[in-house]
Structures are given as C-alpha cells and as structure tokens.
Amino acid sequence: MSSEPVVIVGAGLAGLACAIELHKRQIPFLLLEASHAPGGRVRTDRLDGFQLDRGFQVYLTAYPEGERLLNYKDLQFGRFSPGAMVYLNGSFHRVMDPWREPFAALSGILNPVGSMKDKLLVARLRAVSMAGKPEDLLRKPEKPSHQALQDYGFSQNMIDRFFRPFFGGIMLDAELNVSSRMLEYVFRMMAAGDTTLPAQGMGAIPAQLAAQLPANSIRYGARVEAVSDRVVRLQGNEEISATAVVVATDGPAPAKLLPELAPIESRMAMTLYFSIQGAAPITDPIILLNGDMEWPIQNACIPSLVCPSYAPPGHHLASVVVLGDPGQSDAAIESAVRTQLTRWLKQDLSGWRLLRTYRIRNAHPAYRPETVAEKPTRLKSGVYICGDHRFMPSIQAALVNGRHAAEAVAEHAG
Predict the structure, then answer these.
(1) Residue 143, SS3?
(2) Within 13 Å and on the Cβ side, how many CA atoms surround 272?
C-alpha cells in the first residue's frame, strides 16, 4: 500500500463505516467532510433545549451491521411501543404487534383497520420475513410492495389504511412501489428488535462511529469539488493525492463528482417540530398514522415520550411528517397540519409553538424501476463509491456498503 492515504469523501454513515474498516485493517485514510460534524442526513440540531433530528428518523436495533459497529448501551435507546395508532373515520384505532403486546392486540382485533383475515395474514408475513437469514430476504424474487401485499391476500382496505401510512411512511413512498425485498426486510427488523431513538438524538449514532477513528483523521469544512484518478480537488483548488478515492456522499453529489454515474433520484420528506408546554396530548410512546391518507399528515409522534431528553423539563416535543413536495409555503403547510391535528387530537393547539420545519430534499434514494440489489463499490481503478443509494435506503445498508467499499479498496491494493 502506498504511503498516501485512502481519501474518503463524506462523513455520513457509509463514509464512517468505510473509515472504521480501513482503520481496523491498518490502512491509512483521510476522511473529508464539507460540513462541521459527521452524519450526513443523520444529524441532530439543538434548539431551546429541544433535540431536533433532521427529519423524523428511527433506529431499528435488529440491524445486524448496527449491532456489530455500535455500543447500544451507551446510546441509551428509548423504545417506541410496538405498533401504531391509526386515525380512521374520525377516531384512532390501536394496531399492536400481537407477539409483543398480546392483550392490546386482542383488544383491537375488531377495529376497522383491516379484516380478521388481514390480521391473521400479518402472522404469515411475519413468518416469511423471519425465516432464514436476514440477507436471504434481499435475494428473493422481487415485485412492487403493493403487489406483494395483494399476493399475500391482504385486502385493499388493510393496504390503504395501514401499510401505506406505516410502511409507506418508512420508505417515503405512499404508492408502495418500493421493492418487496425491502418490505420483508424492514418487517423482519421491526419484528426482531425494537424501534428506537437514542437519548442524545439520531446524531449520536454517527458521533459514536466517528469517536472510533483516530484523532485528526476527519477533516471538517473540506468541500470536494472534483475527483479524478487518485486525486481529490477541494474548494480553493487544494489537491490531495490518494492511494484510492472513496466517494461516500449522498443525494446528487456522487453524480456531480463522478460524471460516469447516472443522477440519483431522491424522495423528499418534510418534518415539522412543535414545542408543547405541559402535558403531551397522548400518553404512549407510539406513532400516529393517517389511515384516511388525507393530506397533509403522514404520521406524527411525541419523541419526548420515547426519550425525555428530546425536550426540556416541563415541555414535550411533537414531530409531524408530511411526504413529498406539496409545492406550498411553510406557513400554509403549518396551518394545514394544525387544522388536521386539532381534529385528530380534539384539543386546542394554539399553545403549540413551531420550532422548525425541515424540507429534506434527498431524504431517501429512489430507483426506477424499484429494486434492492447491492451495486459494486469499485467503479474503476483507484475510484470507489458507497452509500445506501448503492444498495437500499436504510442505516443498515449505508453501514454495510461502506464496509464493502473498504474491503474492495483493501483487495485491489494488493
């Protein structure tokens, strides 16, 4: 291996995972990050004592690569209730995981969110998803998720009232065109582990990964403008020679740095955060879903019920997700969200204070046609690429693909 480092462009989860693997293999590296903190899309801002994740996100503890790389005890996860409250026809209906909350699930067996047959079919979907190894699910024949759910036998009512707001919200795809491989994989992760938030916000995950790297191995405020064979040019025309270059950026950046790549299509999402003084409008750490699929709300929750550290004493934090680009102003969307939440919660929300609205334009990579298959990390001699856009939209995929890029660098370095 040359004395020059491997240069990794981007300190998101994939870039950090790549760096950790190179470090384990004692391969010199330099990680360049345009912003002033690690994480990419997985960041947490702090405002007036509140923790605001940059777009509502959760962490699934059953992710195999996460279990390998992260210290779960130090992250101090708070856990969501295993299920959801679905707003349908003027009221909420509890849909719970019968393996985790059997009595709650039994009490909801006659609710209008799907038929009795639908509820029994959930057991079949769970059994299929839990069979074999997790990676086996990513090699199965695939089809659009809405077609897979129909083929399982789920009614259109169950698909529209539960899977579209629930799985569609996770994948930012209310039409459920995303691959059935992803449907079954995510279902397995949620069934096998917990849906959580770290006590210090989602940004604690990349912070913990970055802490595993040597001091001064990450250079912040370093914006890369061009990548060529074993050379990186920064803003200001500084050039860094490299043994190999790994592009670990997300959104449109990889195609700008590597012209041979086709542009990566992205899905957009919006998250509005509100400060609530006093009691929360609900008491359970559970996600509220829009079974009516009436714009604008996709889902809502109170993160401070999951982790009290998300809000200062005497307050709670509300998170509201709006999918897609509605083409309206932030003020118009806030007004529509308040109107809908008032109807849902049957409460006066005039005391809720909007803290911040996030428009995440590159929230998830999207593919046409939708598919889940890991693409090679080696593009050409000396140039590599990694990120969830090379595999599937998830924290798990970003971590795995980052490691695979490091393994490819090591293999071709001889």
Answers:
(1) coil
(2) 24
